[in-house]
Write a structure and sequence with these properties.
Glutaredoxin; 154 residues; 5 helices; Arc Repressor Mutant, subunit A; disordered N terminus
Length: 154
């Protein structure tokens, strides 16, 4: 099968997701120009690509912050103080869900279950799970990430 084969034929959707993941890892997000290249290379209509990218919360079409926080919105996390943690993050970072801080250090998202229900509340930080969260642990995490970013600037 050639690389130019249409990935949407014959149950190849999972390959498309891998292509999109690799492109996002390489470029940081899926810009219009990146999606056009994928569309051309794999003979997939651009509208189909946008449909896939907009459906899955792990894909982004805008530049992202250095640290991507995805707060879990599963019932287990919500029932274990997840809403308070979400409110804290929005207040502390001064952004809403789906936004990036002005300094480009943080992007904040809400996602569906991340599979850590037994250790709720949880979030993903740069695709790695953080569990048994408290406001104090979130404060420390944000503070450490800001400190690391400040040290790297100097």
């Amino acid at each position: 099968m050639s690389e130019r084969t249409n990935l949407m034929e014959g149950g190849k959707d999972e390959i498309l997701l891998n292509v999109l993941h690799r492109a996002q890892e390489k470029h940081g997000y899926l810009s219009e120009s990146v999606l056009k290249k994928i569309s051309s290379k794999y003979s997939i209509p651009i509208a189909k690509l946008y449909g896939v990218v907009k459906f899955y919360t792990m894909f982004h079409t805008e530049p992202q912050g250095k640290n991507i926080i995805e707060i879990c919105g599963s019932p287990s996390c919500v029932l274990n103080n997840g809403i308070s943690l979400e409110q804290f993050l929005k207040s502390e970072l001064k952004i809403k869900i789906g936004e990036t801080t002005q300094d480009k250090l943080f992007s904040l998202y809400k996602t569906s279950c991340i599979g850590c229900c037994d250790e709720a509340p949880a979030m993903l930080l740069n695709r790695k799970p953080c569990t048994r969260l408290t406001i104090d642990s979130l404060k420390a995490t944000i503070e450490n990430l800001r400190k690391e970013a400040g040290e790297k600037k100097e």
